[in-house]
Amino acid sequence: IFSALRPQQPDALLALIAMHRADQRGEKIDVGVGVYRDRSGLTPVMRAVKMAETRLVAQQSSKSYLGSDGDIRFTQLLGELIFSAQSVDDDRRFGLQTPGGTGALRVGAALLTRAMPDARVWVSQPTWPNHAPIFAEAGMATLTHPYFDAKTGGIAFDLMLTALDEARAGDVVLLHGCCHNPTGTQFSVEQWQALAALCSLRGLIPFIDLAYHGLGDDLAPDGAGARMMMEAVPAALLAYSCDKNFALYRDRVGALFVQAPSAPLAEMARANTLALARSLWSMPPDHGAAVVRMILDDPALRKDWRSELERMRTRLNRMRTALAAAHPLLAPIARQRGLFSRLPIDPQTVEALRDHHGIYMPADGRINVAGLNDANIGRFIEGLLPHLEE
Ligand code: LMR
């Protein structure tokens, strides 16, 4: 047993956490893994989360099972946050709680392969390194389309559309809802419209990954593309993560929303998704979803969460402006959104920055802007500038 297994590379992003932790230098800078950090470099529990947790501990009278769809009120409130109260009631749509956005992607991928065994998924080049493995484990082949225009720091949209000309009816197109990981780019309203038209015309299934809702421009604009897409096409999926916008990372809180062409097909898809969830994790962990439900259900907690989220967003965008002003090649960073941007540097430079300056980022030059603050951004720029070519 096990002799047929092949060695596995440790996940590069998770390995960075360990490397940074082991570095004894006091002046090190972590712009690696995607967690929000405040101006003192910490990833605190949000105020509204702490308050809801205190109430939850005091009020919870049972930890008995809820079922494979998890906390139903959580999913409903989250659906209203993304879409609208009316569209959540649409009987062609359903949602279920999942262990993080990864769980939502995984069970969604399993549903798609069960429904369409020959379907393939198109992902942007580059994308979050875990996307292809998630779909591969569910048995779906991955194809890539061009996406990032390193020259402009924007989206190579025409090249993307040209590549998608090769897509077959029933193929899945994975789209980042906002704050693209790793480039920080986002589709414009017109680009979302063009993608929606393409998916409708060609029978492609959009699968939207919304993992940074509220960390780009605000909740409404960050969800606008997803909303528009779901309204324009007959069938679509959306994976939602509460990791970043509720700072609940290790509690694994997410949801999958599915839209089918008709109510009976939605019911069929729902039954199949619940059966798949049952075999994958049986039931999702409750704590974090209960906390999000309590926050969204309580006007005062909800207001406080939104204001803390706004502060996080403002801080990110302030760091973006400062970085963009340091060099013309960094200028696109001011237009990009969310935690990430990709620097125009090669893997050797990434290594040199780590060795000589204690600056930690993955080999592709992705930086987590939240790792920067007023105390370290000067040092970061000083280390980086000699490596930028005009
Ligand atoms: C990241 O991209 O750094 C985050 O989404 C964390 C992860 O799980 O990879």
From TrEMBL:
Location of the Aminotransferase class I/classII large domain: 27-383
The entry's keywords: Aminotransferase, Pyridoxal phosphate, Transferase
Family matches, as Pfam families: Aminotran_1_2
Single GO BP term: L-phenylalanine biosynthetic process from chorismate via phenylpyruvate
Domain of life from the UniProt record: Bacteria
Cofactor: pyridoxal 5'-phosphate
Residue ranges that the Swiss-Prot or TrEMBL entry lists as coiled coil: none
CC annotations in GO: cytosol
Catalytic EC class: transferase
Family per similarity comment: Belongs to the class-I pyridoxal-phosphate-dependent aminotransferase family.
Subunit composition and interactions: Homodimer.
NCBIfam families documented for this protein: PRK09257.1 (NF006719)
Protein name as it appears in the record: Aromatic-amino-acid transaminase
